[in-house]
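tokens incoming
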């Protein structure tokens, strides 16, 4: 993995980049990431991630059915392999999927074009990996629907507020939260810390030192110009680690992993890579002459990979941190 990352850094359309300035937290994270790139460390995680992924998918299906949620979504996911080398590089990952019982199939270009009929007829590629049980969906729509349904059951939301600190109650039962602008703390039976990078600040006074940093990602979203030229569901370009998804009447292209820099300064190279991948596979699908939303965001990530989910060991404090690009 370190060798692959270093190789990417020298590429024009690199899926991994390092930008300046690098903070002390970034440098610490890079060292711990390097130390985690050992086979014995890596082999401890696939079974954990597999159980989490399967459970997540089951819960998603159940919630969607129970609440009758209707949002932009489509079934299936395809990983496109440009060359024989790309195919060889994914084989260890495919073995992990086989061991986990994940349903997938290695297919050739013709079968790939039958599934995604809008793939550029002029591009040549080696093949693809098709995962029929995966899906793509509009996360924002899904979250807003969940918000509406939860409000019907009595959930109250407080927006435009800052959490200043989290502390345990002296009796050991419950948690107190400080809200910016309020003189009195609020008491709760339990809290879930899921504040992205700000979780580090909130947890430090509780004795938790979380080695999490921002790995920035990019996306572009645009209206579909010609539906027949757009993807049916979602594809990922394995070489450039860029995903092209169809969300209703829009196309979303997302990728890149950028360490360092600031979230408010967009790099031109990562965005050019997104446009390149879109044009390579689905030329003319998006209306790029109109409004195009270009986004850069911080994806809080832990150096070992898997997120931290569950009880913190502190009464009433639960954690949901470090999901990286998995959201």
């Amino acid at each position: 993995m370190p060798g692959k990352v270093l190789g990417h850094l020298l590429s024009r359309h690199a899926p991994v980049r390092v930008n300046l300035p690098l903070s002390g937290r970034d440098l610490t994270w890079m060292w711990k990431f390097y130390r985690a790139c050992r086979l014995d460390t890596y082999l401890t995680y696939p079974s954990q991630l597999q159980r989490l992924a399967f459970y997540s998918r089951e819960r998603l299906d159940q919630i969607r059915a129970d609440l009758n949620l209707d949002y932009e979504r489509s079934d299936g996911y395809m990983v496109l392999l440009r060359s024989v080398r790309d195919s060889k590089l994914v084989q260890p990952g495919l073995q992990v999927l086989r061991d986990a019982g994940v349903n997938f199939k290695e297919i050739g270009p013709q079968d790939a074009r039958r599934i995604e009929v809008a793939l550029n007829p002029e591009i040549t590629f080696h093949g693809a990996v098709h995962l029929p049980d995966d899906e793509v969906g509009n996360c924002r729509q899904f979250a807003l629907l969940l918000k509406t349904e939860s409000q019907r059951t009595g959930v109250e939301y407080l927006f435009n507020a800052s959490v200043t600190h989290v502390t345990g109650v002296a009796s050991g039962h419950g948690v107190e939260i400080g809200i910016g602008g309020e003189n009195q703390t609020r008491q709760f039976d339990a809290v879930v810390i899921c504040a992205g990078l700000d979780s580090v600040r909130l947890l430090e006074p509780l004795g938790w030192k979380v080695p999490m940093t921002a790995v920035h990602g990019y996306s572009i979203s645009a209206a579909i110009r010609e539906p027949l030229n757009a993807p049916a569901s979602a594809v990922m370009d394995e070489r450039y680690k860029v995903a092209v998804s169809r969300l209703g009447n829009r196309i979303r292209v997302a990728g890149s992993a950028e360490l360092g820099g600031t979230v408010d300064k967009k790099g031109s190279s990562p965005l050019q890579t997104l446009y390149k991948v879109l044009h390579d596979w689905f030329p003319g699908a998006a209306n790029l002459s109109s409004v195009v939303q270009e986004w850069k965001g911080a994806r809080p990530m832990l150096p070992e990979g898997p997120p931290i989910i569950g009880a913190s060991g502190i009464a009433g404090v639960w954690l949901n941190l470090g999901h990286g690009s998995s959201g």
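note: DSSP finds nine helices and 15 strands in the chain.
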